[in-house]
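Milestone M4 deliverable, item 7.
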Amino acid sequence: MTPERMQRLKEVASRRQAGLTVILENVHDPHNIGAVIRSCDSVGIPEIFVLYTEPHLTEDHILIGRKSASGARKWVDVHYYTSLEACFRHVKEKYRRVLATHLGESAVSLHSLDLTQPTALLFGNERDGVSEAALAYAEGNFIIPQMGMAKSLNISVACAVTLYEALRQRQHAGMYEDENPMPATEQQALYEEYLERSDQKHKNRRARRIDTGE
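Output delivered:
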């Protein structure tokens, strides 16, 4: 490995945002999942959560989306759940609040959120959005302001727009530099992990289904 490549991995590890993640609930299109993973890597998110409570959805949907992830799958951990309760229990152990994209009366504008705080962003599927069962775990709802006739965006686009608002806020707060809340020891451990993942064999890493211990 060249010194330049090692330096690049060190920089990426040092900019990871341990206090920001995404939850995808029953997203059907694997290419949307891949695009979300790519966006997450781009803004420095080290892990996401994929929740499948519909029986026809399987890990294969995550694997199929690897092309649209454009290699980002190697650098973003995907935690795969079929138990809603187990998924949100894991999320809330690490992230202070869950905010859902839901067109309810209590929803606020994306741009009014403080996304420098530890946050898990919950996105529902292409047809039904976030389920009522998942909404019960959310501390708030938000919407992305739109000026056209359509009232919704493609899931991967909505996620990207939201994540780049988070990046804007966190960059302004210095959280990609000296004010990154991730301890230096964790950054170093992540760098060492990325050195290992640079091996070609890690290109198509599988998601790990956690709620069954697999």
